[in-house]
Design a protein that fits this description.
By secondary structure, the protein is mainly α. Helix content is 79%, strand content 0%.
Length: 268
């Protein structure tokens, strides 16, 4: 297990700094903010793709949702843990360089407790999410399950399916391609994958548990320990919040594009 942790500690920081170096070589006219932001999103997409592939492998390999186990669960959780720490650092660097580009060079002339505080104030939900995965989700997965429930851990891993599309969308915006058909198609994929793999996955897990033990879906929650239901609600709540934000953003983009077309030049 230690080898997976060490491997992740090398792979994800290595990918991040390699991306920065490669992008600076090929796109010398890009600012530090462009390079760091796109590097962060590329690494995020890679991690999410690996997590999704691992999750699908685990879910399809477990016929018994409680007792079947798969070696990928513990291995990938350990392998992916360093990514969370790397991503927090990458998000901070993105924030730092973006603020410099946006005219706050005097406040962001160097790294300080003030710049760190500003980052934590702005992105505290994402930082809290990452820390919870490291400090709560990982110990529970590794030490407190008594070897049970690999199927459900696999389901949680598949929730990362939406992340590559989110990253692609941000990269397209960074490249000035936010008013293209590709960006609109990607936006639809973000909504579909997010809703399916981060929200519908919860009733799916309850349904699979009920199907195995002959319990109707609406009764499954009453057959589970309280802490399982509370834990699922705690995980589900921010997913619903983020999905609402995605819907609002999609609505704004749709209305903006519709208004732009209505105000466009007319020909006789």
């Amino acid at each position: 297990m230690l080898s997976a942790l060490v491997c992740g500690s090398i792979v994800f920081p290595g990918l991040f700094y390699s991306s920065i170096k490669i992008l600076r070589s090929f796109f010398a006219h890009w600012s530090d903010a462009d390079v760091v932001c796109i590097s962060e999103r590329l690494v995020s997409a890679i991690h999410a793709s690996l997590a999704t592939a691992s999750g699908v492998t685990v879910v399809t390999s477990c016929s018994d949702v409680m007792t079947d186990s798969h070696w990928l669960v513990q291995s990938f959780v350990l392998f992916g843990a360093p990514y969370m720490a790397t991503d927090i650092y990458a998000m901070y660097l993105s924030h730092y360089h973006l603020q410099r580009v946006r005219g706050q060079a005097s406040s962001y002339s160097c790294h300080s407790l003030q710049t760190l505080k500003a980052f934590l104030t702005k992105d505290w939900i994402l930082v809290l999410h990452h820390l919870a995965l490291i400090l709560i989700f990982m110990p529970i997965t590794l030490f407190f399950r008594r070897g049970l429930g690999d199927f459900f851990i696999g389901c949680f891993l598949t929730s990362e399916l939406s992340t590559p599309f989110v990253a692609i969308g941000k990269i397209l915006i960074q490249l000035g391609l936010d008013d293209t058909r590709l960006h609109r198609i990607n936006g639809v994929m973000v909504l579909l994958t997010f809703f399916t793999c981060r929200i519908l996955v919860f009733p799916f897990m309850y349904w699979m548990y009920g199907r195995q033990f002959g319990i109707p879906l609406h009764r499954v929650a009453f057959h589970l320990p309280l802490h399982c239901n509370v834990g699922n609600l705690v995980i589900l709540a921010p997913q619903i919040y983020w999905f609402i934000l995605l819907l609002k953003k999609a609505k704004r983009l749709y209305l903006r594009q519709r208004t732009g077309k209505a105000d466009g030049p007319k020909t006789d």
